[in-house]
Amino acid sequence: VALGQQRVETKAETVKALSDDWGLVFVVNTDCSFCDLMAPIAEQLKTQYGLQTLAINVSKVPSPTWPQARPDNGTLRRLIELSGEPITTTPTLFMVHRNQQTVHRVATGVVSLEELVGRLYTLSAVKPGESLFGGKSE
Questions:
Q1: Residue 49 and residue 64: Cα distance in Å, rounded?
Q2: What is the DSSP letter of 136?
Q3: In what order do the strands lie in the sheet with 22-28?
Q4: DSSP secondary structure string, 24-77?
Q5: What are phi and psi of 36, to 5 degrees?
Q6: CB atoms within 10 A of CB 27
């Protein structure tokens, strides 16, 4: 039990430390029920871990669940360029390095807070410009 608790605390501390260099971008859609389910989880990431979050709404209609979401101003194109992955599902979550040159896709669809923290913890070991599997990312 103590080892499990220590692991949880280590992950939490590591994810909190990410806020110095990383932020999160949620891609959402007004008509997306899964996006609605992710809204409180996104808020928890922001409040519990101090991660700056930006929500981009791909819909032309404002979202009551994501009132702070902004319309896309070219951010999605840049995320796709840097991650090398198209955005085909909402919600999609990316972590973006402060240098704005490194992006990792963290999740698509609904993912629990614990799972997101685990993924962010894993991705924190990847240095900007490197692949999760080692070496340079393309």
A1: 24
A2: B
A3: 70-71, 53-57, 22-28, 92-97, 103-108
A4: EEEEE-TT-HHHHHHHHHHHHHHHHH---EEEEE-SSSPPSSSTTPEEPSSHHH
A5: -60, -40
A6: 25
Cβ–Cβ < 8 Å for 105, 83: yes
CA distance 34 to 69: 15
Q: Against a cut of 0.90, is the pTM above it?
A: no
Q: How many CB atoms lie within 10 A of CB 103?
A: 22
Closest by CA to 24, choosing from 79, 81, 61, is: 79
Q: Which pLDDT tens digits describe the chain residue by residue (138 residues)?
A: 566 677 778 888 888 888 889 999 999 999 999 999 999 999 999 999 999 999 999 998 999 999 999 999 999 999 999 988 899 999 999 999 888 778 889 999 999 999 999 999 888 876 655 555 554 544
**Residue the block writes with tokens 């410009």:** 129
Cα separation, 133 vs 122, whole angstroms: 11
> Which contiguous run of DSSP H or E holds residue 9?
helix 2-18
Closest CA to 24 of 56, 64, 57, 51: 51
